Amino acid sequence: MPHFLDFEKPIADLEGKIEELRHLSDGEINIADEVGKLEGKVERQLRQTYGRLTAWQKVQVARHPGRPKCGDYVSTLIDEFVPLAGDRLYSEDAALVAGLGRFRGRPVAVLGHEKGNDTESRIAHNFGMARPEGYRKAQRVMDLANRFDLPLLSFVDTSGAYPGVGAEERGQSEAIARSIQSCLSLTVPFVSVIIGEGGSGGAIAIATANKIFMLEHAVYSVISPEGCASILWRDGARAQEAAEALKITAQDLMGLKLIDGIIEEPLGGAQRDPGVTIQAVGEQIGDALDTFAGMDGDALKNHRREKFAALGTAGLI
Amino acid sequence: MSWLSEFVRPKIRALVGGNDVPDNLWHKCPACEQMLFHRELEEHLHVCHACGHHLRVSAKQRLEMLFDDGAFTIVDLPAVTADPLKFRDSRRYTDRLKDAQSKSGEREAILVAHGKIKGQDAVIAAFNFSFMGGSMGQAVGAALLTAADTAVARNAALIAIPASGGARMQEGMLSLIQMPRTVIAIDRVREAGLPYFVLLTDPTTGGVSASFAMLGDIQIAEPGAMIGFAGKRVIQDTVREELPEGFQTAEYLRDHGMVDMVVPRGELPETIGRLISLLRGQSDHDNSPLVAIPAPTPDAS
Predict the structure, then answer these.
(1) Of A167, A235, B220, B277, which is most buried by a Cβ count within 10 Å?
(2) Could you tell me if A196 and A303 lie in one domain?
(3) 3-state secondary structure of B100
(4) Cα distance from B300 to chain A (closest Cα, Å)?
(5) Looking at the DSSP assignment, which residues form a beta bridge with residue B88?
């Protein structure tokens, strides 16, 4: 049973009808015409709905349980993937996946937040909310990438770093800060893709990259719309307004020149065709890596630094 | 209400001068509720003489307390787009900014100045918590870059003094992007071979604590300061259990290995001056005023 979002109700109804027809017909009545008509309607509905999603609707799409997760990208795009565990200081953190593998034949290092695909794996991955250990593992892998000249890819999908007692005691702030510093010290190409939710410091800790892309319906924000609403509006229920005001969509951030490109999703969102989405992401990563061919380590590091030093000074005109 | 409260009290109030007394002559200590006379409070560097609580102070007061003889030169800060997102919640962001500016008399939540601390060249970037919670937007990020460049140009140590709830939400992603920008700033100081210290003051949380504020060569905290990544309420809602005693205080962080030392306000200039001198390899006959200072006790708090 596919999962439908609240605003997808008309689409869910139509698809329910199609399903019903198919179920009833058992081959005797010709239902092709009727189904075809309904499918046309579904497509129109999807085009209409997804053509003008509000910021809040995008938040819901970005959090869609059926959306491809980090692990799906890694298993499709990265050959010979070898996951690496642990920060060598305290623990392993399954919320932040790290490893080595081949992207189109070329050895790369990979980082990403893993939210999980079902209840069991969501719990195992702590819903993609990393602890300090995750960010320290990231630093370890960035160091490896530097030393062995491996381009770094990151798949960002987190509601934020984990807010827990242990995480605070073990220096969540320091771990994130140091991870940003590691990103900035890389002498290899670093390409980051926001595949779902880019949640604040927990996201930018592995997204301070040479090139940053966002999926069409992904969001990237300094604070969750709910959190912002409860602080500024003193009412968590005003999240819709907060989402709009915060300018968190890929389109908004492209307008602010904070990202380098938007990767188109299949009609109706990535969850409707994970395979096509993942291939599109792969194409974009490949193209981005190509643009850095022949650049030496210092040039790559300076490119990243100068880019961020120049960012975040202007605004909407 | 008895006849006493109705009739006698107004007369007593009239007797002591009533509304003629400016309301800022007395401050109540937020920790022990002791009434503190303003002149005395200033003499004690805004530390409660009854309980030792360190009250919050403005950026300007920080500069006056730390630089030798209270002498320093304010560094001009670059102008940035004031309201980049045309943000509006229950009020316009531009109105909130104007309010903060007129209340504080400052342009933004940060001041940068250069001068000497116990004879050592230093640049200080100090936050004003009273200015929109010391939140970090484009102006604050740009100010930290300026502070770093000033330190490098003047061959001086950089001291960051955060007092901030974190990123400025009203600037959306443009505020989040200040995290890497401030890290770039301190990397410039680092690469110039100059010391970079952080003095963590009450409070330091969120995107500020998770960027430049945790990357000091030496991390100093003021007694009792609240320091952390996530807010207490958020953590409580997540873990649904009692938080440990003293959680997220300066002393708690020291005990968990996150800061080097907790230093009372009065000892800060000596401590900072001494550390700069030690890191910069000066021998004690280099005209150092630090010779006579007693060694700090291991537990300065």
Answers:
(1) A167
(2) yes
(3) helix
(4) 21
(5) B92
